[in-house]
């Protein structure tokens, strides 16, 4: 599930300090605490829905509709080509255009995206990382076109996510190596401090770490280690004088996850605040408590949304929202909620409205905002917070001893820890130790009227959208030099960008020049790729420990036996299984867990990570002489990419290799995939990974005309 970042304070609250809690009676000790009737009711948090799809025009219409419904900020979802620095006509963009967000290839797209939306009145959150500088440049130029002068530009409010570390670990939209990526982040922070001081240039995301399996301690420690790496880089760059480091710290925001373990999640937020206060005071000497305040936004846990009995997701979302709103001393600045049906596919506007209304009922109908912190003084809460703080600092120190967050990324330590934690969670679910209502407990259900017509219960992106977007992009390239645009030739702007990249200058001004010159997203990223190169992050699979033991009589033991017998029947030492991630979908958690479990079941696993073309996957399958291919796609591009792999295998004379597909695949699409020759389709409701591995063995036997094994799987 795509996720967005938190937000700065709304404009109407920009001068608040702790006064938003109501005046306190302090001093002699004889004053009585203020009564509820005497307190001014707190203002609600910033309310957003994470949105964007198909085209800039369609997304603009959706934004204006959501704002009219009472949404108080924008949260922009970009499609995967935009996130990974490719134009819509690049080979890797095929099937991905407009799927998980809006395609923005150039200034014209950004202009249409915010048409009739006055940016000086907006608080805009943009979920963008590797190409964050580029999208901020486009945003600023659109603001200039709307008539904003330099003073008005300096008042723009919003957030660019811009946290590359978690991209290496979980979401997979990284482009450049860690060093150059950190430079881009540093340059953006230095630029915004001087030119857009109310903008949050980075939104450090622990959200995606939890999605990748992080425990609360790992979530806190890895996010804080990222913050340390960023602040150290800014401090050491010489671009920001020491006396302005407080301004930098004050604009660092966080985006966190709130899972269903209500008490633990609420304590996690209190621990986050204490740790951030201590780090910024002790490591960076920030004396102003307002600048040290932990500022965070939240999207509640999409990892916990279930395809089975999806109506249960509503109460999960509410409980998770309460974890970040009930505790006033650790309340989120911005909240966005997923929709109940995101495990099924793309939510419709009505589904997003339901999530917005959940927030509005809590903020405007309940008495939540009338009270001080209701958990203050609880010894249970205090003990849990203290435990999280202590364990998190221990892990932060461990990472610092390795050389910091970037070194821990490059060594593979962080990724392997997350893969291991996620494998443990999956094992607990499969064993029933961790219970999920409707999935592994209370599975019987009445017919669900919400999903009676499952294909109508989600929104789909018209496959013809991609062709229209590509045609529009090519028209932009052909006409950007002509009236009424008259952009200077982009080659000069791109050459300047590369020259600055080869040196040590700040890249933001050169990126602004590219935006004004009509440069495209792919051209901007391509120029930096020439200078910086690209980076393939460690997968963490090979170093992950065994999550499910193969004790005699266990399901895993039976599957291992099937694997061994099938290898023997085929006359090979080991069955070979390729796990592939075609296209730009970087959500690799599921693929990694399949790869680890297949390894533990006795397969020789071929897993090359994310961002592969169908051609590359087929080449690897042939070179490794595999017995099965598993394709994992969560972005919606399965309809194009999976059949492409099948066709290429057939053309290569390897059409007998069974292909298995997994991901967020609607029923109708699953039926079509099976009709094209896919051996089996698995979706989020298929949580038994060991059972899936057993099914893969069955498909290998069937493809090789071997008799079924009478062994339970």
Beta content comes to 5-15%
* Count of distinct strands: 15
- Which structural class is indicated by helix and strand composition? alpha/beta
- Distance from N terminus to C terminus (CA atoms, Å) equals 30 Å
Q: Counting H and I runs of at least 4 residues, what is the number of helices? A: 26
Q: What is the overall shape?
A: globular
Whole-angstrom Rg: 25 Å
Low-pLDDT ranges: 1-32
Biggest beta sheet attributes: 5 strands, parallel
Outline the structure in words:
By secondary structure, the chain is of the alpha/beta class. It contains 26 helices and 15 strands. Mean pLDDT is 90; it is low at 1-32. α12 links the parallel β9 (296-300) and β10 (334-336). The strands form three sheets. A five-stranded parallel sheet has the order 1-10-9-8-7. Strands 2-3-4-5-6 form a five-stranded parallel sheet, covered by helices on one side. Strands 12-11-13-14-15 form a five-stranded parallel sheet, with helices on both faces. Helix content is 46%, strand content 9%.
Features:
alpha/beta; five-stranded parallel beta sheet; 26 helices
Summary of the model, kept short:
The protein is of the alpha/beta class and 713 residues long.
Q: How is this fold's topology laid out?
A:
Elements: E1 46-48, E2 50-51, H1 56-68, E3 74-77, H2 80-84, H3 107-113, E4 123-127, H4 132-145, H5 150-153, E5 157-160, H6 165-171, H7 178-195, E6 199-200, E7 202-205, H8 207-211, H9 216-237, H10 245-250, E8 252-258, H11 262-282, E9 296-300, H12 312-323, E10 334-336, H13 349-364, H14 379-401, H15 405-410, H16 413-431, H17 464-479, H18 490-502, H19 508-516, H20 521-532, H21 555-570, E11 576-580, H22 589-600, E12 604-607, H23 614-623, E13 628-633, H24 638-651, E14 659-663, H25 667-676, E15 680-682, H26 689-703
Parallel strand pairs: 1-10, 2-3, 3-4, 4-5, 5-6, 7-8, 8-9, 9-10, 11-12, 11-13, 13-14, 14-15
Helix pairs in contact: 1-3, 4-19, 7-9, 9-11, 9-14, 11-12, 11-14, 16-22, 18-19, 18-20, 21-26, 22-26, 23-24, 24-25
